[in-house]
Amino acid sequence: MPEQNNTFLEEVSRRRTFAIISHPDAGKTTLTEKLLLYGGAIRLAGTVKARKAQKYATSDWMEIEKQRGISVTSSVLQFEYNGYCINILDTPGHQDFSEDTYRTLVAADSAVMVIDAAKGVEAQTKKLFKVCKMRGIPIFTFVNKLDRAGKDPFELMEEIEKVLGIQSYPINWPIGTDGNFKGVYNRKLAQIEVFGGGDHGRATVESTVGSTEDEIFKELLGDHLYGKLCDDIELLDMAGDEFDIKRVHNGELTPMFFGSAITNFGVEPFLNEFLEMTTLPMPRTTDAGDVYPDNENFSAFIFKIQANMNPAHRDRIAFMRICSGKFQKGMEVNHVQAGKMVKLAQPQQFLAQDRVIVDEAYPGDIIGIFDPGIFNLGDTLCQKPPYFKYQGIPVFPPEHFARVYSADTMKRKQFIKGVSQLSEEGTIQVFKQTDIGREELIIGVVGMLQLEVLEYRLKNEYGVDIRIQNLPYKFIRWADYKDSDISKLYISSDSMIARDKNEDLVVLFVYEWGIQRFVEGNKGIN
Ligand code: GDP
């Protein structure tokens, strides 16, 4: 095998690409920051928070995130650790943006679910977990905030199994809880690790590692904690399920870790075991069968489009997940959906704290390229024939609808431009109502907060004030009705006809039973 090939395969096999999900405030940002700290990508903790603050400055519409204390968009970070090249995809915690989360998960090979030890499985954890489950990717659990009073670890295991319906297997087990968190026991290696130092979480922690038999641990932990640990280990071994990595990879068993992101206790043991257990870049489905990452034909799909990341440039970035082959700056590839060659001229990657231009990248990596408005979500890029298309990214049916107008009729052009760009990003879905003598825009969203984002971004990025009139509809169905004359259709007073961006007919309903009535009233239409 030629040498170049070897390095290519080595590069692929050291990639780990995962998303972090959590209910807001469980500690996702803190954990991300600590992973960067261990990767040496930042020297002192506190920088990611600073970056979070700085991001607001450079990307003004994120002001809305600050005001509400939520994260609206997903960002991407890459760093190196122990020979691994790690890509972390951050996801919005709020359920109103679960569609964005789903798109992000399509680009990830596994997910880490952060849980607050005191709160257990929270509402958003449940929703986000469901989205992960739909993707069928491995899910790892990091129980956070062990430095404080929290639920009993056995109780948390049970809660995960009951509420989320996934079996759990603790890989390590906390020693000392409720403000007395001393260390973890690694069940795989049958080793105790007791933490010390750590400079209140600003620097990486020192620890003493050894076998449970080591006398030193009785001394370090004291008789009570040591005794409790021995009892816990016995209980776990008796009651617990077998560990089966295949079931982990199928998303049927979640490996569980305990730690405290703020003090760094348990972060490194988690990272080491997680990286070993999680999947390498996975094959992806195309219309020509599965494509494996070791395939040398470069290919990627676009999973996120974001406009106006930098208000000074009003640029639009398309994020792609590389699935096969090696990426090189300036390469020409086929944009399969458009049937055109495009040059990938200014590829950017998001390292710990900066955007940088990338020269090369490998399967598992995420890069952003400048998009002059040609890409759509789900599009495939492919270097050499035979060209293929990755499975599209599904859109979620909207559950809230509103009529939206430009407050200033003189700004209609800007308004239309803004709305269509934000719909291309997947922020909103746009429909038109045409059966009322004029054309009116209907916006569909999965969560109401998306409408707020629309309003905010139109004002700040396009200078357009809008008026929003909420509509009572909750359900949408696509109707296979090709006739342009819709007057022949039976439409009840609590439903409405509109067209999507492809001019396909959609019907909006207030009540679910309205759907059945429509089908009965219009025989032959699906
Ligand atoms: P996110 O919303 O999930 O990104 O959560 P953040 O990382 O912003 O954390 C939310 C709050 O919890 C912040 O005030 C953190 O300082 C705090 N926090 C995060 N991790 C820990 C931890 O391990 N222990 C304690 N006591 N607090 C934590």
Main sheet?
7 strands, mixed
Binned strand content: 25-35%
Strand order of the largest sheet: 2-3-1-4-5-11-6
Oligomer type: single chain
Averaged pLDDT, please? 85
Helix content: 25-40%
Radius of gyration (Å): 25 Å
Domain Tr-type G: 13-282
Main location: cytoplasm
Pfam families: EF-G_D2, GTP_EFTU, RF3_C
Family: Belongs to the TRAFAC class translation factor GTPase superfamily. Classic translation factor GTPase family. PrfC subfamily.
Q: Could you walk me through the main structural features you see in this protein, from its secondary elements to its overall organization?
A:
With 526 residues, the chain is an alpha+beta fold. It contains 13 helices and 30 strands. A hairpin with a 2-residue loop joins strand 12 and strand 13. The termini are far apart. The structure holds guanosine-5'-diphosphate (GDP).
Q: Helix and strand layout, with pairings?
A:
Layout: H1 3-13, E1 15-22, H2 28-38, H3 47-58, H4 63-68, E2 76-81, E3 84-90, H5 98-107, E4 110-116, H6 123-135, E5 139-144, H7 153-164, E6 167-170, E7 172-175, E8 183-186, E9 191-196, E10 206-211, H8 215-239, H9 245-249, E11 253-258, H10 267-277, E12 284-286, E13 289-291, E14 299-307, E15 316-324, E16 327-328, E17 332-335, E18 340-343, E19 348-350, E20 355-357, E21 360-361, E22 366-370, E23 380-382, E24 400-406, H11 412-424, E25 429-433, E26 440-445, H12 449-462, E27 466-471, E28 475-478, E29 495-499, E30 505-509, H13 513-521
Parallel strand pairs: 1-3, 1-4, 4-5, 5-11, 6-11
Antiparallel strand pairs: 2-3, 7-8, 8-9, 9-10, 12-13, 14-15, 14-23, 15-22, 16-21, 17-18, 17-23, 19-20, 24-26, 24-27, 25-26, 28-30, 29-30
Helix pairs in contact: 5-6, 11-12
Bound molecules: guanosine-5'-diphosphate.
Residues 22, 24-30, 93, 144-145, 147-148, 260-262 line the site of guanosine-5'-diphosphate.
